[in-house]
Amino acid sequence: MEKGHLRCDANVSVRPVGQKEFGTRTEVKNMNSFKGVERALRYEIDRQIELIKSGGEVTQATMLWDEKRQVAEVMRSKEESHDYRYFPEPDLVNLVVSREWIDETRANLPELPDARADRFVSQYGIREYDAAVLTDTRDLADYFEETMAHFDEGQAAANWIGTEVLGVLKQTGQDIREYRVKPKQIADLLGRIKAGEISGKMAKTVFAEMNETGKDVAAIIKEKGLVQISDTGALEPIIDKILADNPDNVAKYRAGKQQLLGFFVGQVMKATRGQANPQVVNKLLRAKLEG
Asked: Of 116, 136, 198, 209, which one has the fewest beta carbons inside 10 Å?
């Protein structure tokens, strides 16, 4: 504004506390800085309040702000349509909008973003913030809903789409309509995490490959050998060996240094090349260390 690239006009009206009707407005012009806007508005608000308190009436007018003198003065008082010499446009016919047309149009409107966001919250149990993100565009909202046609945990789907999918789109500059990973593939990936077939870390590796190749989840898991080990029968011998190889740390854990649990989990994950189910590993380790 200070460089003259932007001008600001402001309408001002005041009303006593408790009064329902709006007061008469004035329009203040010639403000060319943010400070100028603030000072002009303060001046005109105070002027109208003092005028009403003294028994006067505010007259509808255009006020010109004088930055040097710090006052606003009447520029013109003609503010009704006839003062501007408006006249009907002869080439425009009268438009009559019937109640029937309004009702029919409203009934045929698609679900609007706010209504869709509210439905996402109530139907899928996701947070309001995530619903707002997912309904930012119709195509993104459609992508989420198609994912939910094949998956049953709304918040997990909202988290993945809002973080992982949108992250890829932002990085590559793609539109969701051009995105090669389809909603059904996202649902498949999330379903395998939920079932404990793969871990969240493995899922991100699979997801990266999906973005590169477009391959399905099952094919990538098979190619990379990413199946998560949840079988206690397969994990127990590994855990027993790690505990046997680290008697000092076992003794320290049992003496109260329970933060060493992370060390043991890390050793198991290392031995299984990251394929062990962390939840199962934690449960087995606690049972063996505290039993």
From this structure: 136
Average pLDDT on 18-47 reads: 91
Residue 4, φ and ψ in degrees, nearest 5:
85, 10
DSSP string of 38-82, one letter each residue: HHHHHHHHHHHHHHHHTT--PPPEEEEEETTTTEEEEEE---SGG
Compute the distance between CA of residue 289 and CA of residue 104 in angstroms, rounded to an integer.
70
Nearest Cα to 116, choosing from 97, 138, 100, 148?
Answer: 138
Kindly report the average pLDDT of the chain as a whole number: 90
pLDDT of residue 85: 62
Structure tokens at 228: 């998560």
- Geometric angle at alpha carbon 13, from 12 and 19, rounded to 5°: 160
d(CA 150, CA 184): 6
